Structures are given as structure tokens and as C-alpha cells.
Amino acid sequence: MTSHGSPEDRLTELEDRRLIDDVLYRYAQALDSRDWELLRSCFTPDAVADYLELGGINDGFEAILTLCRGALDGLDATQHLIGSPLATIDGDTATATCYLQAQHVFNGADGGDHFLVGGTYVDKLVRTPDGWRIKHRTLHATWTAGNPGVFAAGAERLAGNN
Q1: pLDDT tens across 103-138, in order?
Q2: Cα four-point dihedral sign 74, 99, 137, 53
Q3: DSSP 8-state assignment for residue 162
Q4: In the chain, how long is the greatest CA-to-CA distance?
Q5: Distance between CA 149 and CA 139 in Å, rounded?
Q6: What single string gives the DSSP state of each residue in 82-122?
Q7: By CB neighbour count within 10 A (0-12 exposed, 13-18 middle, 19+ buried), where does 3 fall?
Q8: Where are the domains of the chain?
Q9: How far is CA 38 from CA 30, 54, 69, 136, 149, in A?
Q10: What are the angstrom distances between the C-alpha of 66 and each of 36, 49, 51, 111?
């Protein structure tokens, strides 16, 4: 945060930082509660999610939603933790980074019940009439542990094969 500017400017910057942090935390809450409307409130309609390290680039919120639902709806549980958010704000745009740990659970999956991902999200956000929204998200997975097969087991469950 800058220490210069008027008290009003500093207050606006503090508010913007808090609202940006809220978007990052809402994302994690939305995934774990499977609250897809809450997830929608995190992104612009034309947002891009670059999860290339874990499967691909998704253009537009509907593609992001399809990816998230396909990956998570068949699992028994998930827990996405967001930490150390840091934002740089430039008017109506911002860049934010945060750490993540994401636990994915499918009880009884061949090869183990858990898959854990750790890494960083790098987000480009824009101020909209409805508040700050993610316009572009990149996931940098720096480590994984456990069984990535939990996703295949979840997909089989969704397809009715489990």
C-alpha cells in the first residue's frame, strides 16, 4: 500500500484491497461449497482461466464453470485454501497473487483417496459495476502429492459408472 495521497485515496485503496481479497476467498468458498453462482460472482463473463499445468485454458466463464463442475462435482470433498494475497492496484485494474493448497478427496479411489496441489494463482482483475472481478487467472502448480486418479474416479461417478 502506498503511504502518500489524501486520506480519501488511502481509504479507497484499503477498501479496494479488501474487496480484491474477498474475490480470492469467495473463489475458494464457491469451489468447496459447489456454489456455482458464488463462483460466477468472482469472474467477468469473458474471463480466461489458464490451468494449462493441470489441463488447459478455458475461455469465458461458462467454460471455467464446466471445467470446475467436471473436476469437482464427483468428488467426496475438497478444501481450497488461499493465503498471502498481495495486490497491485492501478485505477480500475489490478494484479493479485496468492498461494493455494487444494485438497481433493474421493474415498475408495484406486491408488489413494487424496490429491493435493500447492502453488500460486496470478490474477488480473477489473473493477466492474458489480465490484472487482477476475478477468484472467493463471494457476502455477509448484507441487502435487497423492493420487491424481481421484479426478478420474469422480468423473466415473458423474457418468454413473461408480
Answers
A1: 999 999 999 999 999 999 999 999 999 999 999 999
A2: negative
A3: -
A4: 61
A5: 20
A6: EEEEEEEEETTEEEEEEEEEEEEE-TT-TT-SEEEEEEEEE
A7: exposed
A8: 7-158
A9: 5, 23, 13, 17, 27
A10: 10, 12, 13, 26
pLDDT at 2 > cutoff 60: no
CATH of 7-158, one of 3.10.450.50, 3.40.630.30, 3.30.720.210, 3.30.450.20: 3.10.450.50
Percent composition of the chain: helix, strand, coil (DSSP 3-state, to 5) = 35, 45, 20
- Tell me which residue of 103, 117, 137, 141 sits closest to 20, measured CA to CA: 137
Alpha-carbon gap, residue 138 to 136, rounded angstroms: 7
Q: Which DSSP helix (H) or strand (E) runs through 76?
A: none
